[in-house]
Amino acid sequence: MTTFKSILAATDFSDDARRAVDRAASLAVEQGGELELLHVMSGPSLKSLRELFQLMPDAEAKLVEDAQATLNELASTARLLTGTGVAATVKVGHVLDEILAASRQRELLVLGGKGSNPLRDLILGTTAERLLNKCRQPVLVVKQARRGPYQRVLVPVDFSPHSAIALARAIAIAPTAEITLVHAFEALFEGKLWLAGVSDDDLRRYRNQARQKALASIDAMIQGCGRDSDRIYRTVERGSPAPVILAKEAEFDADLIVVGKHGQLLAEELLLGSVTRHVLADSKCDVLVVQ
Asked: What is the 3-state secondary structure (H, E, C) of the chain?
């Protein structure tokens, strides 16, 4: 059974990151798991400050001490929710490397959707997006303030192996939620068939066949979920995946989207898939990205 018993929340003390800590604490309670908070101070940035302002060693140590005190306050707040101990760790080093190293020991990494440096995020991409290109664990990107456990979850499916994994993760992270499987389809070579003179009636039959095939595949996925199948629904829409997913997010007032890191295209194995990238950038709700 898929669970999230060991959770790491990485924070840079931005508002989004604080919301991520709150969600992570709530998940630790729901999953019966343990929580660690991590703040990484950039080693290169500290070095630059040391060289530019000729910081004394005790001044640098004071910066680290202040960060630890702030993180301890966050951990104390989280403990009020979890009722158990919450570890609070400050590291100095390369931010992405340190978070990746710590996440390997955990089952879920939780991050804020935006960082404390909007200009850097605009140029290089958010820390969340850059981590997702390398992280092997599920990553929850938190965008909204917590209103309780997740209740309305979307799972985009393209029938690749990642779709089944995404559904299993959705069931685990939202054990009481309504889950809707979303499939966006475009009939293969429809444009070329139209140019070749295929009639509108034949094209409509072709589209309907594609829809029915998708519905049958989704129904098979749902039937394989056992007792959880009663809370799983499906919708199939013609169109490009990212716009369809975002439209369904608004229609269903989803509070979480669970999406595979990659889709069916082999090129997407090298980087974050294009659909996942669009959903991560343009959705309003939280996004869980799984391998």
From this structure: CCCCCEEEEECCCCHHHHHHHHHHHHHHHHHCCEEEEEEEEEHHHHHHHHHHHCCCHHHHHHHHHHHHHHHHHHHHHHHHHHCCCEEEEEEEECHHHHHHHHHCCCCEEEEECCCCCHHHHHHHCCHHHHHHCCCCCCEEEECCCCCCCCCEEEEECCCCHHHHHHHHHHHHHCCCCEEEEEEEECCCCHHHHHHCCCCHHHHHHHHHHHHHHHHHHHHHHHHCCHHHHHHEEEEEEECCHHHHHHHHHHHHCCCEEEEECCCCCHHHHCCCCHHHHHHHHHCCCEEEEEC
Q: Where are the domains of the chain?
A: 6-142, 152-290
Tell me the CATH architecture of domain 6-142: 3-Layer(aba) Sandwich (3.40)
pLDDT by residue (tens digit) across 132-175? 888 889 999 999 999 999 999 999 999 888 899 999 999 999 99
Q: What is the mean pLDDT of the chain?
A: 85
Give me the CATH code for the 152-290 domain, please.
3.40.50.620
Q: Which of 64-73, 126-135, 147-156 has the lowest mean pLDDT?
A: 126-135
